[in-house]
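Reopening closed ticket. The problem is back. First fold of the pair:
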Amino acid sequence: MDGSGGERIARKGREQIERIRQAGRVVHDVLELLAGAAVPGVSTAELDELARRRTLELGAQPAFLGYRGYPASLCVSVNEQVIHGIPSPARRLRDGDLVGLDYGVILAGWYADAARTVAVGRASARAARLRDATRRALAAGLAAVRPGARVGDVGAAVQACAQAAGYSVVREFVGHGIGRRLHEPPQVPNHGPAGTGPVLAEGMVLAVEPMLTAGGPAVRTLDDGWTAVTLDGSLSAHFEHTVAVTKKGPEILTLPEGVPFTP
């Protein structure tokens, strides 16, 4: 989910970052499960229930359920849906669908949040290119997360990678700080300019989450009040990780420790 800002940016100690990492392990486990379950014929409501059950088994709580009135545990966005797609028993996945899976949990009072886009069955070359470019854009944004950099440097890196591949960046939704709350300062836009915005410092924890489209960047929200879709009906993809700012570089907390994020 996208975030908001305006308050002081919290810096976490190592013990606090480890708490977020523990929540991140649950998020990773659930997303791995969902990626394997996103097959032709399954409903998006079934994916939501699978995510909720697995989260509870692991001792955590879904972070999105009831947040600002959101009615489900999982955001599942299909094809032209950019973000915040509400699961439904009537929406069954079809071969070739491009599906964004956005998930967060609360574990012992700490939040973690991540997203990935997967292809159902056989992805078209067009869909696979967009998915892979969005993943590369996230990798570029994560690489810019370091002490002394600015938030605008992260967005500029995402934007440059996306536009070099021929894709548009959605601007209405942004990444965010995360920790004791799902959305903490700062907002982390997916566009530049570089050299602007708050300075990043060791101990800050961010959720970086580019959303790219195969057409224009404009979106609209459906009558359900949540689901955002591309205005031109083009495909969209979304990737996200929770990352800590450290002296050694970005430390991804929603991957198993020591496992690199490869574009």
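Second fold of the pair, where the issue appears:
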Amino acid sequence: MYKKIKSTLGKLNFFIGRSPEIEKRIDWKRFIPEPYKAVLLISADFELAWAWRYTKSSQDPIKKALTKARLERENIPNILLLCEQYNIPVTWATVGHLFLESCNRCEGLAHPELPRLDHFDNDFWRFQGVDWFEFDPCTDYKTNPEWYCPGLIRMILDSPIKHEIGCHTFSHIDCSDEICKPALMTAELKECKNIASKWGLNITSFVHPGYTIGNLDTLSREGFTNFRTDYRNVLGYPMKHDNGLWEFEQTTEFVYNKKWSFDYHIYKYKEIIKRAIKSNTLCVLWFHPSFDSVVVEKILPEVFDFINKNRDQIWLVTHGEYVGWLDNKEGVD
């Protein structure tokens, strides 16, 4: 009953225009380049099993982690095909460990060079284990493909679409200031950047796992330029922090709600983009590639087609490219 009421209220708030919120600014052209009427960012939290191994949403977190990882592996090639068909660039916020072909234990420890998180309990995860890397199989991508995926990353990079590889920490940590010490955050970021550099990548876009927002000055010091937040659902504008980081507030997530029809899902996402165009705002969409495959089969094709047909009004861009334009715009102004 509670879920049904929540779903109904969600629809109501959407229909009356309360969610997402819409900001009004007369200086919107500072954030929307001519001749466009809106900017659209699409990002993905690319995690495989790392995101779910301590989840509180299941009595068997590892089973759920492996199931989600396998579904994500199945979905991503199909998502990439849709991106090619409709010319949709995505910012892939990638867990750094996924770049690895293999890893091993040294004196019983996986990645002993990295500091460890202490036990914690947040809104989504509960870590009470013996070691943060206790479930790292320390094998290779062929033996345990749920924990490594250089092949999928190569598939993204080889796509004719100009996707962006961003960062989601090395091991999907809680980044909040209360739980993550700056030294740990620094080590995780440096590990990601070092691995990415071997692929010829300079990663500058960041998404905090589980929206555990924190360590922003550390992010800036390590050369990152932007991050995404979930404090509210909004069609608004980016905000630049004193440390130079640009903050992008989420608009909504691509998900599948079994209580909604496919037509309603499609209508909702299209309508949000229409509202962005009408209000001259930034629209920030994102997804977990481990979502139900019906999103790829039934929903994304319709939404991507709508975006593609309205390119004269929408600037669809990656996080990093948008930051480049914003910083250049500031310099010119």
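Update: turned out to be a display glitch only; the data is intact. The longest strand covers residues 38-46. The CA atoms of residues 40 and 156 lie 20 Å apart. Please close again.
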